[in-house]
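From the shared-data thread, chain only:
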Amino acid sequence: MPKPNPPYLSHDTDRHGNVRWYVRVSGKPKVRIREQYGTQAFWAAYRDALSGRIHVKPADTGRRVIAPAQSGSLRSLCETYYRGAEFKGIDSTTRRVRRSILERLCHEATPSGKLYGDLPYRQLLPRHVRAMRDARFETPGAANSLLKALRQLFTFAVNCDLSDTNPAKEVPYLPPVRAEGIPAWTDADVENFKSAFPSGTMGRLALMLFMELGQRISDVHRLGPSMMKDGAITFTQWKNRRRNPITLTLPISEDLRAVLTAIPPDQETFLVNDWGRPFASTAAFGNKFRDWCRAAGLTCRSAHGLRKHFAAKLAERGASDREIMSMTGHRTSKEVDRYTRSASQKRL
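Structure, as tokens:
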């Protein structure tokens, strides 16, 4: 005997043989579900239609419209957070990522079938947050990113007297899969990259900037001739530039200076794309650098690994943690300790 459809779900077939699915609730307009039957997206739309979060425009265009968030729900708190100065004041990339994380959570179904976004946020307890985290235990990075986003959301709520507690603050982060994080480049990796990109190529220039200045990818692609003066380069690190800016003045070696001074002084950045223009974003430059790494046979290496390589080399030459921090821009020695651990082992 065929399994009956879930409540209020029905279907018909149009003249072209296409099956159309609808949610029909007595006293409410019929809502068509356009996602493919049986997929997660289909059942998410089905639950949204049942809860009244999706309705059809009066003109019956068939377009899905998300209903306003219910007062006191987690989604309403998120929307209030997005409008606040705290959220608007963070970096645009962080803002986009954090909003994406929270939006996905709001549209995720709980074990009981309800959406997290529809639940009262004041009833959210640490055990609920722990369950969200543990559901992502196979991807600790994603679990910790969600936990961090919830901590920031409820910090905002507490500061604005919208909540008395921060349930996410009591839940610890999961340990990373790789305790050492992103692997540092080896000397052999550097030589392989040099072989693939000889002097005069954009790839070699990028390598020189990373290795001699030790900065993040978000800084390296923004460096330009206007920042050079008296044999040094001065810039404000992109990360935390609004909340806690760090300005560095770093010496430039003779080899690097010879390359940089050959670049036209009116050029905005040292590194440019294939059309001779500055990279549009850190992501764009990151994609290009990954292409260069693949061309050099370094499929498991990243720009951040070069920053670790830089710090480790300083440590091997006997630089103290404070001296390394003055070059990398770190405010605490915690990260530097991890970067330079291998160098300490070599000295032993």
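The chain has a mean pLDDT of 87.
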